[in-house]
Fold this protein.
Amino acid sequence: MAEYCLAHRLESHAAWLESLGVRGVRLDLSKQRAIGTPMPGALLVGACLRGADLRQADLSDANFVGADLRETDLRFAELARADFSVAILRGTRFRGANLTEAILHRAQLWSADLRYASLVQVNLAGAELMGAQLEGVDMTQAKLCGADLGGADLRNANLCGADFRCANLRGVSLEGAIVDHDTNFAGVKADAQAFANVDVAALRQAYLPPCFHAKNLFWLQHR
């Protein structure tokens, strides 16, 4: 897509937002290609980007609040500090993308592919990550309070300092995941078996998942 045409459409979308739909046109890039396009700071609130090919695009600091990005291809895209709050990201492909310090508060990420992405200091509080592919991600100091990760794949993920308080971890795969003294699993919903291959001895006692309290504490100390 020509950058001039895209810039014009972004301006029309901004007018649509500012006028509450009276002027301009809502941006719709469904199934269109904008590979490697520089769009840092783009205003994409409520835009429809369903199925778009945005591989390697620079969308750092972009605002995707409430946008529809179902099945969108964002592999290896630059998305640092982008805001995806309450966005629809079902089946979206983020493999290898840089989402450092991005905001995905209450975003819908069902079955999204985030393998090997950088999620350092990302805000995923209340996000829906059921069945998401998170193998090898770097979630250092990520915030996942109250998130639903049921059935997600977190194998070999870096979870150092990640905050999972009250998250749903039922059915997750944590084999090879890296945790440290600051990883917080307090109040999570999960079975002890999910942590069978995790170094839970590295966790603070206050940060242990409820499944290790009382009756499971002996198993933790002597396994």
About this structure: The chain has a mean pLDDT of 94.
